[in-house]
Amino acid sequence: MSETKLDHKASLSVARPYIRTGNLYCVPVLRNRLVFAEAVRQSIRLLDEDMPWNPRRDLIAVTLPESMQPTLLEAIRRLPDVSLVVAVVLKKGAREAFGVTPCDPFVEAIRTAQERHWMVKFVDLELAPGNLLHGLCAKDPNWPDDLLIEVIGIESYLNLIEGYFTTPPARLEPVDSLRENAVAANLRRLQPLWRRILVVTDAGIYRSVMSQLCSPVPFETSARQSGAPCSVELRTNLSLTALLRHLDDYPRLIERYEGARHSNDAFSKYHELWEEVMRFAQGSIDMKFSVRQYLAFATFLKNLLKAEHQVSPKPDVLYLAAAGCFGKVFAERLIFHLVGYQTQITTAVERITARSLARNSTIKLDVAIRPGGKYFSRTCNPYTEAYDIAPPLEGRNREKFGRAYSWDDDTTFRRLQKRLTRIASEVEPSQVVLPYRGSICNGVHIRRTIRARYRGDSGLYVKAEKKNRRRAKFEYEPTVWVLSENVDQPGSFVSKPLGEFFEDMIDQVSQRPGESFPIMSMLAVGSETVRTETQTAAGGKLWCADQIVRLTFGTRFDNEKDARDHFGQLFPLRFPNHDEFEHPCGCVHRDFVAQADDGRGWLTVSLLTALKYADRDVIVIAPLDFTVPREVLHHPLMIGKAFHVLPLGRFSRDEIEMIGTRYQYEASGADERAAKAAFTIIMRRYRR
């Protein structure tokens, strides 16, 4: 291990963690990433070793707005507890959030300066959060592992990713241009006044800022800059989702980094992860692993990293390696251990006996708080999903708007529904495994036979075709599309009347509690990924949200008459009526209000509603790791009915996003034709 650390130090000496331009020592960073926080720490150490830091002649500059400095310093004093600094525009609901964690490079720079009494300058532009909007930050499967900066250096790594920041959604205009102009102007004023300036800046704006500083003529813009936020607040009540989003890949490593901050040794994420895994494995006294298993794990993990083009394993890769070499029980316990962080995220394994634990593992994951706010961010990269985001869905004042319209891509959704039958025939097994009864059928099932022998069963098992194989009637049975893996976020249900298919896909939104109509589909809109944009030219406001689940009843029918003709007297048993629904968090059937849990039970409510109106089958399209909740499987509605779970991965990312995003436009005092025209123009930009 000592040789490994020496090699790591040597790589850092060759690949400097900063880029020098004159007296500017720049560290382009991605927020909330441990590797970049370590790059800032090493930059400070190397600069101090080259020439002792003089607080009167040397400066640290960060691309953050000046208005957040007092609150940010208060949040830093609370570390290692994670918190959010939130800039708020009063009466508009828009908020910009900045996560304060030990693994954030901006926080590391400011925190070190505070501890050593060094000067820090905030050089970014003041922006009202209402001016910030971007869609989902693209998830690029080929995004290079950020740990590469320890091997090839930060400038070479920046060359690998700079193309990502040149186009939307990572490039946000005109905000990014305004920020670049302001940062360049501030650095130009500071440059002649200080001997050295360590600049910690967002990777997305670094190239443009440097090109402006190298230009002999300052770049001018006629664009009007926005004013400062009305107030800055500190939020400590963070949801589990928000905490995990701000704590890199493994929160447990952030604890180790917190303890190693004041040492001069380099902190290698890969080596620290390996030591933590080995320590946890050796501490699992109820499980005994051989040296052969450890060697197999090291080889398997190395091969997986090579196949995935990673330097440090992501949680799914680590789980796969641990499950393959040590078993699924240990792999689950390991991942839950690595998720833990201080007292904010606690994990525990309930041990009954060593023997029962070897067969089953009950793991609890608790977070000290419940979901809090909805926010914006001024940066976007593949490590940050559609950030936390905008005004609440509840309590919005509709009186000042003339009309509200929603956009629903029914055409695409119907096309995807037609593919379900073919997907089911490819996914669902056509064979069963039976004990040998004198016929070899389709051959011996070797795996099942070996497992039986291992348990002391000397029987032979064979493969046979399913008898009376029954196909679900996808056109007539309820279909549940689970479009989000985050089952913890609250959701709000929206119902759509039978027959409301629109060629122009624009529907006027109306509040209709108590109104009677048969429901064709129900949507659950997530509350943690809402984004807004003020359309001053069109005179209205656009908001868009993730649809976390979509429940449909008989999608083959274009109108109520066709559905009634087909089902006859069974029609009320196949299509719910809106007058049977209450509205604790949108439209929820009165039988399942208790399961709604203020919107957090959207998955259970969706599945139970589908069961209630199913004949014999419920089709579920969900992520690979989806499991039907125990509460649903043991519900009386399950008697005589079955779930058919199909993988959501059989559809492309673009298709999922097309049916998984809800857009709504609120027109301010406009007539219907003008409002629809403005909405159509906006949607052309979003759906291109």
Shape: globular
Structural category: alpha+beta
| Strand residues, percent | 15-25%
* Mean pLDDT over all positions: 75
Number of domains: 4
Indicate the radius of gyration in whole angstroms.
Answer: 28 Å
Number of helices: 25
Task: Characterize this entry briefly.
With 688 residues, the chain is α+β, with helices and mostly antiparallel strands. It has 25 helices and 23 strands.
Tell me what the structure shows.
This protein has 25 helices and 23 strands. The protein is an alpha+beta fold and about 700 residues long. It is globular, with a radius of gyration of 28 Å. The N terminus is likely disordered.
List keywords for this structure.
25 helices, 4 domains, globular, 688 residues, 23 strands, five-stranded mixed β-sheet, disordered N terminus, nine-stranded mixed β-sheet, alpha+beta
Give the helix/strand layout.
Elements lengths: L1 H13 L4 E3 L2 E6 L4 H17 L7 E5 L6 H9 L5 E6 L6 E6 L4 H12 L3 E3 L26 H4 L1 H8 L13 H16 L5 E7 H12 L16 E5 L4 H7 L4 H10 L8 H15 L7 H18 L6 H12 L1 H12 L5 E6 L3 H6 L2 E6 L35 E5 L2 H8 L2 H8 L3 E5 L10 H9 L6 E5 L13 E4 L8 E7 L8 E3 L10 E17 L4 E13 L7 H8 L3 H4 L6 E2 L5 E2 L3 H4 L5 H11 L4 E6 L7 H4 L8 E6 L5 H7 L1 E7 L4 H15 L2
